[in-house]
Amino acid sequence: MSDQSMAAILEGRTSQPQQLIEALHDVQQLSGYIPQEAMTTLSQELGVPLIEVYRVASFYKAFSLTPRGRHVMTVCMGTACHVRGAARVAEQASAQLGVEPGGTTSDGQFTLECVNCLGACALGPVVVLDGVYHDQVTPRKLGRMIESVRRAESEDRLHV
Amino acid sequence: MEQYVTLTMDGARARVPRGTSVLDAAMEYGICIPHLCHIPYLSDMGACRLCIVEHIENGRAKVTTSCTLRVQEGMVIRTNTEKIRKLRRNIAELLVAEAPNSRAVQDIAVRCGVKEVRYPFRNNDCVLCGRCVRVCTEMWGARAIGFVGRGKERHVDFPFGVRPDFCKQCSSCVDLCPMTITPCDGPMKPGEERLCGKCESQLQVTEQIPDTCVWCDLGMGFNCARQA
Ligand code: SF4
Ligand code: SF4
Ligand code: FES
Ligand code: FES
Predict the structure, then answer these.
(1) Whether residue B43 is found in the same domain as residue B14
(2) Distance of CA B72 to CAs A5, A124, B9, B112, Å?
(3) Atom 3 of ligand 4 has which residue's CA nearest to it?
(4) Cα–Cα 20 to 30 A to B14, which of A32, A39, A87, B113?
(5) pLDDT, tens digit only, all 160 positions of chain A
(6) CA–CA distance, A112 with A127 (Å, rounded to integer)
């Protein structure tokens, strides 16, 4: 994260501890996670003790303390999805990406997450890829989803 | 001039300065309310839930923690009803299950009349009482430790898990931690959890006099506010 973007986030917020969560949201959005240096800077600039910044950042699910992949895949493991075979979908995801749930692939392409119910039980098994809901996912369908993301990325790279 | 309020605790009238907590008032009057997270010179956060009492309001009894409850004029409090004792015993049991190897927790359990623990032992090294966090923040203003994470993952830690250079290394956090006091016979092995004979004998006192302070030996284990 560059000094400039940090300065932009801090603009008009210096010495305003109540802005902490807003600022953390901005950092999260910009970097995809909350780096330690960002927390240290926020602590100094907003006048919030470092441990408080860390406590807040570690408390909310909206903030991630480790770098996240460019694509985030969330597999629902809730009851409804589970009885329809979510476990096999998750296994497929882990195997194909080579990471455990909660992990990020070494090339930074994917982050795999498992959650307990996304509130769309009738559509289960549900998988969310980059904010888009996919219903009735089977291991095969999931495999194709991962492939298409990979293909799109490698094509992008060719065009740059 | 200090203002006083009158309240009724277990049927007895008590006069204490305004702003006192019900727990402190009870201690002052020799009523025993077991407590763990309360430290007289620190703020109260109601973490351990041991100090619960019944607060009677409009004919309804509300169970609440006495360390965070301020006295009010005409308040009616019951500290040792059958119901409270049962709830408290259960809380103490949960604490033992969480940290069976702490003398402080054992002492509390004994004072609450726990004879068997119905929960699986988890052997965690922390009951999240927050004593360490509060002493660091309030006494020393160092703020080197705090609660991190949420739910099952909540624990006490340094920022980013590394001791910061602004930690004063005063070790007050360690001194106040109830986990640092080991059981009389040393740490227990799994499957061999029991009390030493002396602690065992205290159980009788607990049975006979559950509600009045007897200046029990147990108090020293968990820093009972009466002994402080
Ligand atoms: S480390 Fe000790 S003092 Fe701190 S919260 Fe845990 S049990 Fe309490
Ligand atoms: S010394 Fe023992 S009996 Fe007295 S208040 Fe403390 S715990 Fe209760
Ligand atoms: S169980 Fe998967 S959406 Fe509810
Ligand atoms: S002493 Fe009141 S909740 Fe712990």
Answers:
(1) yes
(2) 52, 54, 12, 27
(3) B46
(4) B113
(5) 777 888 888 888 889 999 999 999 999 988 888 999 999 999 999 999 999 999 999 998 888 888 888 898 999 999 999 999 999 999 999 999 999 988 889 888 899 988 888 889 999 899 999 889 999 999 999 999 999 999 988 888 777 6
(6) 11
Cis peptide before A101 (omega within 30 of 0): no
Length, in residues, of chain A: 160
Do the domain assignments include residue B228? Answer: no
Q: What is the nearest CA distance from B158 to chain A, expressed in angstroms?
A: 7
Shortest Cα–Cα distance, A36 to chain B (Å): 8
pTM: 0.80
> From the centroid of its chain, how far is CA B125?
16
Q: Do B74 and B169 share a structural domain? A: no
Cα separations in angstroms, A6 against A33, A35, A45, A47, B128: 14, 12, 11, 15, 35
Question: What is the domain extent for residue A89?
Answer: 71-159
Q: Are residues B99 and B192 in the same domain?
A: yes
Q: Are residues A35 and A7 in the same domain?
A: yes
- Among the partner-chain residues B143, B150, B158, the one whose CB lies closest to the CB of A49 is B143
